[in-house]
From TrEMBL, chains A, B:
Coiled coil start-end: none
Annotated TM spans: 192-212, 218-239, 286-310, 322-344, 364-388, 431-452, 561-583, 603-622
Organism of this sequence: Chaetomidium leptoderma
Segments forming domain Anoctamin transmembrane: 184-643
Protein's recorded name: Anoctamin-10
Statement: the UniProt record of this protein carries the keyword Membrane: yes
Domain spans labelled Anoctamin alpha-beta plait: 18-151
Subcellular locations according to the entry: Membrane
Primary location recorded for the protein, binned into one broad class: membrane
Keywords: Membrane, Transmembrane, Transmembrane helix
Length: 730, 730
């Protein structure tokens, strides 16, 4: 029986039937007994943790969909309350939740008015309940591992209505504001929201270099010192601003990690791992980096050399076909090697055995940044710093590729290769390729390819299922009112998980082009500005349609990418200085510049190094200044947090002060004592000492009893000064 | 009447008569009426703040000594309790004080057993009470300003017994341990203790470069690459270690500033000052630094040039006298200029108008560091990087000083000045002077000169007083049992305040010599090791005998000096590389090295710059690694603090969990339901929908009622897989 669908329903956005999470459960035919036992355990565990469950058949008969929702609002509230108190205890939030759990009415009011539960909070908490170990009150379900290996994935369902609104709103806006990011945060959690906040901040900051770059392109041309300076300054300001903004956002979103909270000293984490052992394993990063450089670098250098040889030296037969050789080689080797090395990086990070997800992720990102750095920038580095200055010396060696070309190199150095000798165009072309063409290609692979892939895959599957349907009655017969919903869930179950790392990487690599090489082609930022407007929307679309809804993890920063940004900004100061020095031909004053007609040794090494040294230290100095200035500016989030913390403290303190106002000693008052003379008092003290009553300390403090006596004695002493003694001597 | 003194009393350490603070009150003869009125106000204010007061005549008739002690233990306790609670509220201490102020017995137990009051705490609190504004419960006495201008100083009294023990203990010890520093902390407060902790840590760390330097001196000789590398590495390790140690100490001492606590946003500080205005004024630092360089640099360069000319070029009459000219000039101009510039720096810092004492101090230290940097290191820089490489070119220009010498320079370049041409000895001599002789001179000016000055000053004064005594009866007639005590207090009133900045400066400058120039003379660290052993003791002696007892301020770090240390360590990587490159003649491989016989332009600029560039980046890399490693090592203080915080949180959380165990919803249980079929259930749902009871959501979740039904349905679905459908198709 073919499922009948009501076409009207599909048009208006469907509800999610209150489903919090869906578990995609697979049943390998040869393990169905184990899968069945495990399924019983799964439902039991989830039920014990407080979930209502429903099961439905999956797309294929060998998979099930288990639907979960938190069984009661009171469970949800008590869990969220607990999580918030825990946040407060760990210093993550400034104030304790203002409700007492004993009073249900108070709690209802608190959740209704004071701090409502966001969808992200609810989903995060539900996920924690599913995955947390049983002794901590969760169900202990860990997808794909151990006896939960049949649990293929645990994912929340997309909120169609929200997604539709989200995409249509963003497609109409030029500029995303904080409210837009806030909505994402409430739905998808801080981790995804942080990415969009970063993207938005970067986009806003790009406006300046885009405008300035356009002006520089018109007026100054490439390799301009002024552009290089402004560009580096911009990079510093952006980096430091984002560092501040990041903290600000974390605080505004009421959430700031206290990193120590996951430390083994607290006894929270059982795994103990010697830091020395980890350090030893971390040393493996050095050979790893070397391997990356050797493997990827080797491929890129070889392809580079082959390309130059074929395009600029070789003139023999089949040239039109051979031109494609380097591209073919790169397309074959680069992705393969990258995949291999990424896997190696993942394995290495696992061996390093970090205590927290964050630390693991940071270490992994560090490694893949090495890979990305090489694949993204090495080509341009080769052109700028090897091909152009040393080409004349190195190109003759390229005849190793072509035996027949040996004849005209045997004569000596002057090869008939005028093309490549003075070809800074090659550099410009390369930069334009990476900053325009590559961005478009990237967009295509990111959005269009997965979509097409999914379409094809589904068609194939449909045909397969239809074929098997003919031979049996195994196709799930859904209830008509659920049918379209289940169809949608089955589709979502097959989507990939959203990995925010990929998107960050793309943006960081892009920032690298801007920082490192935009002096070659000042329009770079314009291209990126356009690209990033599209990027934000296409990423939103990717999340909404190409990926499962992300689990709303929290985050208080863009994490390890921050270091990568800082590194690229710094390196930018060096490469910009070097590029300007080598390629700037405008002014006659640049005597150290590259003389493209002369020998490469004409470059004044010391002048090049001096300009690099100068630029780098200027950069570091500017960074210190900018950091100082930005730190002094007000940060709305921090201000808010400080105020909150202060109000809380003030309240506590006031309560305490009230309390001890009565207890406080008021000190010896000033009583207008009877008239006394110093002598009389001292006499009295002497008397006390005679009767043996006084220790010297007591005596000392009894000479003047009370403040009024001190005043009297003091005034007497001062009176003596009034007729200065030394005036007598004159 | 001359005061009779009991000589026995003076031998055994005297008690301080329970005096907490002494106010040195001066009465200018022409303002005695104002002084009298102000005195009355003073005693009234102090008394209202809770102090018992006694007044005694000062050394001269125009000064009074006002003795203060906290009137009651209960006042002290309530104040300290309040301060500790405030610390807790501001996150400075992990746990609230464990006593309730309502119960006096509990408070007594708390102060007797749990957390006794240290002397430093008592004195700090008393000082706060004296100086805090009246609306905050203090007496509002601010020495030397406004209508308190007659209050010359407010100082605590030295604890003679402790000082005697302190000095004698330290003079017998090779090595100071944490307990020794702890004692200082309990008496003098964290600020002084931090200095000694730093000194001790530095001393301990010096053992390594002293030993290695000695070995290097024997085996490697000066300008050794290996020594330079090891020295830089050591500097990094020391710097990073101290950064860690500093935090550790602050935490161990139960005290860590939360810098924000003094921020205007909290409303605590009334003064509001635009950060932009401050920023504008901070820009004045640039002309200030320029002025320092111009003035001090000018003097040093001139003296340097004159010295070289006289010693190495000039051969005329009076040479033996003229030799002293540069020293005389330096001795005249340098201190004068330094004093002037220091005053200017103080003034500038005041204009910048910082909100906190700490920020003010940091800004001031930054400025005087510039002055110190020039006076301390410029001479050596000139020798190493100007005199030696460019001497041949520059020295001929020195004949500007001596007209008569013009005859033999008129012939051309080859001056008969073989001496200075190849004289790296000059550099070595200079380094040895600064690292040995200057340290000894410094010791003398720091300890012996003030002592002698005081002796002389007192003798003069005594004679004066005796003279005036003859003409009047104004000399104070002390009670015999107080006489020697008062004499001591009068002496202490005349001592200088202890300024820990001076001592830090000395150590930081010393660290600079080690980091920047010790590659010239590897024995540097040995000299410093000996010097610093003496330094710790002589500083202790200075505090105990040459200065007033310091007010026990708190501190959580060595403050702005940390940046200075970091800067010097970094600069050391550059100077060491340059020095090794320029002066190392050992290996033939150093083709870039300075050829002392040849022209200075033989130095390969690019090689020099490359080696600097390399060294600096190696340094930065090593720093990142060392920082990472040190951060991973355990810090006892932080561990302790974390444990404390965690225990507190755990306790709070447990209490809460107990509370809501009853409230927590247990989730839908698994009841072994009656046998059901999927069809029957779905039928039921359909029925519900017919009666109009169910929204689609309700229906969805009612298909399977309870977990047991989900399990049944799931097992039924799985059972279908057991005979795989697609196996039919084959």
């Amino acid at each position: 029986m073919v499922v009948s669908q009501s076409p009207e329903r599909d048009k208006q956005p469907q509800s999610n039937f209150d489903v919090d999470y869906v578990i995609h459960y697979t049943i390998p035919p040869n393990e169905s007994a184990e899968a069945e036992a495990s399924f019983t355990q799964l439902i039991t565990a989830l039920s014990a943790a407080g979930f209502a469950t429903e099961v439905r058949p999956g797309r294929t008969p060998s998979s099930l969909l288990v639907f979960l929702k938190l069984a009661s609002t009171s469970l949800l509230h008590s869990q969220i309350y607990r999580a918030r108190v825990q946040d407060w205890l760990y210093g993550v939030r400034p104030a304790a939740p203002a409700a007492s759990p004993e009073n249900p009415a108070d709690m209802d009011r608190y959740f209704a008015d004071d701090e409502p539960v966001t969808e992200a909070e609810r989903l995060r908490l539900a996920y924690m309940l599913i995955t947390r170990p049983r002794n901590e009150g969760g169900a202990g379900v860990t997808p794909k591992t151990g006896h939960w290996r049949f649990v293929q994935s645990v994912f929340p369902l997309h909120d169609r209505a929200f997604n539709r609104e989200w995409l249509s709103e963003w497609s109409k806006k030029y500029y995303l504001d904080e409210a837009d990011i806030g909505k994402i945060r409430d739905r998808m959690g801080e981790r995804v929201a942080f990415y969009f906040a970063f993207l938005q901040s970067y986009f806003a900051f790009l406006l300046f270099p885009a405008a300035f770059g356009f002006a520089a392109w018109l007026v100054l041309g490439p390799f301009s010192t002024v552009y290089a300076l402004v560009n580096c300054l911009w990079a510093v300001v952006f980096f430091e601003h984002w560092k501040m903004k990041e903290v600000d956002l974390a605080v505004q979103w009421g959430f700031q990690f206290e990193r120590e909270s996951v430390d083994p000293v607290t006894g929270e984490i059982v795994k103990v791992y010697s830091p020395y052992k980890r350090l030893a394993r971390q040393l493996l990063q050095v050979p790893f980096a070397a391997a990356c450089v050797a493997a990827l670098g080797g491929v890129i250098v070889s392809c580079f050399a082959i390309e130059i040889f074929i395009n600029e030296v070789y003139n023999g037969p089949f040239k039109q076909y051979l031109t494609f050789l380097p591209t073919v080689l790169l397309t074959i080797f680069n992705p393969t090697l990258t995949t291999l090395l990424t896997r190696l990086a993942e394995r290495l990070t696992e061996i390093e055995n970090y205590e927290t997800r964050d630390a693991h992720q940071a270490a992994f990102v560090q490694k893949i940044f090495v890979i990305n750095f090489i694949t993204s920038y090495l080509g341009i580095f080769l052109t700028a710093f090897v091909y152009v200055p040393f080409g004349k010396i190195l190109v003759p060696y390229l005849d190793v590729f072509q035996f027949t070309a040996q004849r005209f190199t045997a004569e000596g150095k002057p090869l008939p290769t005028k093309d490549w000798k003075i070809n800074p165009n090659r550099l410009t072309k390369q930069v334009i390729y990476f900053t325009v063409t590559a961005q478009i290609v990237n967009f295509a692979t990111e959005v269009i390819v997965p979509y097409a892939k999914r379409k094809i895959f589904r068609t194939v599957e449909k045909v397969q299922t239809e074929m098997s349907e003919k031979s049996s009655s195994g196709q799930p017969k859904d209830q008509p009112d659920e049918a379209s919903f289940l169809k949608r869930v089955r589709n979502e179950a097959e989507l990939d998980e959203y990995d925010v790392t990929v998107d960050y990487r793309e943006m960081v690599v892009q920032f690298g082009y801007l920082s490192l090489f935009s002096v070659v082609w000042p329009l770079t930022a314009c291209s990126f500005l356009v690209n990033n407007w599209v990027e934000a929307r296409s990423d939103a679309m990717k999340i909404a349609t190409n990926c499962q809804r992300p689990i709303p993890w929290r985050a208080d920063s863009i994490g390890p990418w921050l270091n990568a940004l800082g590194f690229l900004a710094w390196l930018g100061s060096i490469t910009s200085a070097a590029l300007v020095f080598l390629f700037h031909h405008g002014g006659g004053h640049k005597s150290g510049g590259l003389d493209l007609e002369g020998s490469p040794w004409d470059i004044r090494g010391w002048a090049l190094l001096l300009s690099i040294l100068f630029a780098e230290h200027l950069y570091l100095l500017v960074q210190i200044v900018v950091r100082g200035v930005i730190r002094k500016l007000d940060s709305p989030g921090l201000l808010k947090e400080k105020k909150e913390r202060f109000v809380m403290r003030k309240k506590l303190l006031e309560r305490m002060v009230e309390r001890d106002v009565s207890a406080e000693a008021s000190g010896p008052g000033i009583s207008a004592g009877e008239a006394i003379t110093r002598e009389a008092l001292e006499e009295e003290a002497r008397r006390l000492s005679v009767v043996g009553e006084g220790r010297p300390e007591q005596l000392f403090w009894q000479r003047q009893r009370g403040a009024s006596e001190t005043i009297q004695v003091g005034r007497a002493l001062i009176a003596e000064v009034r007729i200065p003694l030394w005036s007598d001597a004159t």
